[in-house]
Design brief:
Oligomer: heterodimer
Strand order of the largest sheet of chain A: 1-4
Number of domains of chain B: 2
Helix content of chain A: over 70%
Order of helices and strands of chain B: HEHEHEHEHEHEHEHEHEHEHHHHEE
CATH topology of the largest domain in chain B: Rossmann fold
CATH superfamily of the largest domain in chain B: Response regulator
Radius of gyration of chain B: 23 Å
Strand content of chain A: under 5%
Number of helices of chain B: 14
Number of strands of chain B: 12
Number of helices of chain A: 16
Distance between the termini of chain B: 78 Å
Radius of gyration of chain A: 21 Å
CATH class of the largest domain in chain B: Alpha Beta
Largest sheet of chain A: 2 strands, antiparallel
Shape of chain A: globular
CATH architecture of the largest domain in chain B: 3-Layer(aba) Sandwich
Shape of chain B: elongated
Largest interface: A-B, 30 and 35 residues
Structural class of chain B: alpha/beta
Strand order of the largest sheet of chain B: 7-6-8-9-10-11-12
Number of strands of chain A: 4
Chain lengths: 348, 385
């Protein structure tokens, strides 16, 4: 029984976890997630796949906004770039899907340099507006570059096959999304505990102090942008495959806001928060629908027929409630529960 | 002994019946057939989604009032996708796997159906797409997805040819949206422009969602265009016509069917008088349109009746195709039978558009088009000869 947390060395401090129990339950969760596609119906599988793709994208945004403190309203620009990167390379040019994935991340990362450069001088609201403008410019460029992107007509995307594996079935595609989400999670967790991650956090907390400590603001801010955009681009490729059809219309600006909402609800700067926030925000409408179903089919129908308006209201209310009562987000609540468990019956 | 035999016979009959029920497709019980619709019901696209659903409801109410389909009543469940492809995909899966509907008599817009196509195709569920029939929906033909209407390209070609013939030698202006709808409109226009060598003095595109057209209309005035194709949908066309009124210009103006909704005539005001449009469903100013309104009135609520527009007719026609196919399948209702019967549909009269038919390799009605003109006094469109 653990009675507290004692870290005596730096390796202990930066270890992913010092608890075998955490590794055990992590493995159990991974196995359960791997088995889930065979156990749930197609609708729940679709929701699970959407959650896994969103987790990947939000973890990408978390590197920029959560770790480095740079607000981006234009991440949907990287998402759509990634989707087109994959669709053009794999769909139109017929190159191997792995090259498509590489292109989706690389093109987004390259473009991030364009929007990352102003971040060296801009902060807060000014940077947010710049990234917002970037998202609109990207949409416009995609439409104008019709010979490459098929313009407003969009591109149909097939499910990939590589390494002797076919991801054509819904179950196999969910596994692919799960694998990429897990890789991204470990990637971001490792990034956070590295010198680079600590530099990101130093910039977030106080960039003048970070510079005084020898952190190269130019290099690290650009690195944060490119890393974040690369991961978001991969998520965009997965989202495009999930939709089976890539067009600018499928990537509304609202996706950027939803991603920020997920980070706020989950807890800024925490990968666990990004995961909890994604699950919560994605399942909130479903839980509300189920709750309404208890009041009869008419109440449930009310939700089905006014789903989008009710969803927007729900998201708004939840964000306000979290900002007012639990600014640390879901991850804050989770930490409180853990402390309660460890310290009980003492006050946590 | 006789009692035993009778009991055994009853048990066999019950067993056969229950086996029959078990063998039936999802969404079908002895008394009910469950249908599902994925459509935008909130936000600005609700103007088309709600009206389309009303049309489906009219067809269902009509069938139920006539005793249902072989003793089974039809029931509709709806899911709002907000006109967002990812949500259409989720909603389609929900209808098939959670609500377990038997068929989908109304699916969302063109891009949304294309996004949901792999799910629809894989499931095999009978589906009607009657909101925005684009080529990707019916070509290549899928066994279970049927498009009702006419292609955007054909529609715009018919309108431009008509306006070109009526206004020979005049200068033209065109403004289109920067999405797949706008591309289809422009493609159709370009074909006729080359064919008839139209003199285009203004050609512009606008970003979807744009509300201010003062700059574009100033350029239209400056260009001196005498015939104008307003390639917006609802609010865009209203803004363009109001801006033209403000600038005191009134070129011969054509609009396309996605925006041919009576409600916008009131919003445009007197400037809407004389607007040309093309459509494959009847205008409400025609005898067929009035007959449909009379039919719909007792079958839907007052609010639904007030919201009726061209999409109601499109929804009604699509749902009628499905219901007629279900009727022909009788009690042994399956997806395979319904899809096969829909493919066999020939010359089905719905009263709201030209007779509908499909074929073994055709999943598109490619319906006859007609040109119509707005009459502000009666807030309706009337067919032109």
């Amino acid at each position: 029984m653990r009675s507290g947390t004692f870290k005596e060395t730096y390796p202990e401090l930066i270890a992913l976890t010092d608890s075998r129990l955490v590794w055990f339950w992590g493995a159990v969760l991974a196995i359960a997630l791997a088995a889930a596609p065979y156990l749930v119906n197609a609708y729940l599988l679709s929701l699970l796949t959407a959650i896994l793709i969103t987790v990947t994208g939000v973890l990408g945004l978390n590197i920029l906004t959560g770790y480095t403190g740079l607000i981006s309203l234009g991440h949907v620009g990287f998402l759509v770039t990634g989707a087109y990167g994959y669709a053009v390379v794999s769909g139109r040019w017929g190159l191997p899907p792995l090259l498509g994935f590489a292109a989706s991340g690389s093109v987004a990362a390259l473009l991030s340099l364009v929007v990352g450069a102003p971040s060296l001088r801009l902060r807060g609201l000014y940077l947010a507006i710049t990234t917002l403008a970037f998202a609109f410019i990207v949409s416009h460029l995609i439409i104008e570059a019709a010979p490459l992107t098929n313009g407003a007509r969009g591109i149909t995307v097939e499910r990939p096959s590589f390494g002797g594996l076919s991801f054509a079935s819904d179950q196999a595609f969910a596994h692919l999304c799960l694998a990429i989400a897990i890789l991204t999670l470990f990637g971001t967790l490792n990034l956070r505990r590295s010198r680079i991650g600590r530099a990101f956090v130093a910039i977030r907390d106080n960039d003048i102090a970070a510079r005084a400590m020898g952190v190269n603001l130019h290099a690290y801010k650009l690195l944060a942008f490119t890393t974040s955009a690369f991961v978001t681009g991969i998520a965009g490729a997965l989202y495009g495959i999930y939709l089976s059809y890539v067009s600018v219309e499928g990537f509304p600006f609202l996706l950027s806001i939803e991603a920020l909402a997920i980070l706020i609800v989950g807890g800024l700067g925490s990968p666990l928060g990004a995961i909890l926030g994604t699950i919560f925000v994605t399942l909130l409408p479903e839980l509300t629908r189920s709750a309404l179903a208890m009041f009869g089919s008419e109440a449930e129908a009310l939700f089905s027929t006014g789903a989008q308006e009710l969803k927007s209201i729900l998201y708004g209310v939840v964000i306000i409630l979290f900002l007012r009562f639990e600014p640390r987000g879901l991850v804050g609540i989770w930490h409180d529960i853990r402390r309660l468990w460890v310290h009980w019956p003492l006050r946590f | 002994m006789r009692n035993t035999l009778a009991a055994a016979a009853l048990a066999c009959a019950a067993g056969t019946m229950s086996f029959g029920a078990l063998a039936a497709e999802q969404g079908v019980t002895d008394t009910e057939i469950l249908l599902g619709s994925v459509i935008p019901l909130t936000g600005p696209p609700a103007l088309l989604g709600v009206a389309h659903t009303t049309g489906v409801k009219v067809a269902i109410a009509e069938a139920n009032n006539a005793g249902g389909v072989k003793g089974r009543k039809l029931r509709l469940v709806m899911d709002d996708d907000g006109y967002v492809s990812a949500r259409t995909l989720q909603s389609t899966r929900k209808l098939i796997d959670v609500d377990k509907v038997f068929a989908i008599p109304g699916h969302s817009g063109s891009g949304q159906v294309v996004a949901a196509m792999p799910v629809l195709e894989k499931s095999g569920i009978p589906t009607i797409a009657s909101v925005g029939p684009v080529k990707a929906i019916y070509d290549p033909p899928r066994p279970n997805v049927f498009a009702v209407g006419s292609s955007y390209e054909d529609g715009i070609r018919a309108l431009v040819r008509y306006l070109g013939d009526r206004n020979p030698g005049k200068t033209w202006g065109i403004i289109t949206q920067d999405d797949d709808y706008g591309v289809a409109v422009r493609d159709g226009f370009d074909t006729v422009q080359k064919e008839k060598k139209l003199n285009v003095v203004l050609s512009a595109t606008y970003k979807r969602g744009q509300q201010d057209f003062s700059s574009e209309m100033a350029r239209l005035k400056e260009s001196g265009a005498e015939v104008f194709l307003a390639g917006g949908i609802i609010s865009e066309n209203i803004a363009m016509v109001k801006e033209m009124e403000k600038l005191s210009i009134k070129p011969v103006t054509g609009i396309f069917w996605p925006g041919r909704v009576e409600a916008i005539l009131k919003l445009m005001g007197p400037a809407s008088d004389g607007l040309y449009a093309v459509d494959y469903v009847e205008p409400f100013g025609s005898p067929a349109g009035q007959a449909f309104m009379e039919k719909a009135k007792p079958l839907v609520s007052e609010a639904e009746f007030k919201g009726i527009n061209r999409y109601t007719m499109a929804g009604y026609a699509g749902a009628r195709v499905l219901i007629e196919a279900i009727k022909r399948c009788g009690r042994e209702l399956t997806w395979a039978c319904t899809n096969a019967e829909m493919a066999r549909t020939k010359d089905l009269e719905t009263g709201v558009m030209a007779p509908i038919g499909f074929g073994p390799n055709s999943r598109f009605t490619d319906s006859r088009l007609q040109i119509m003109q707005a009459d502000f006094a009666t807030l309706s469109y009337k067919p032109v000869q």
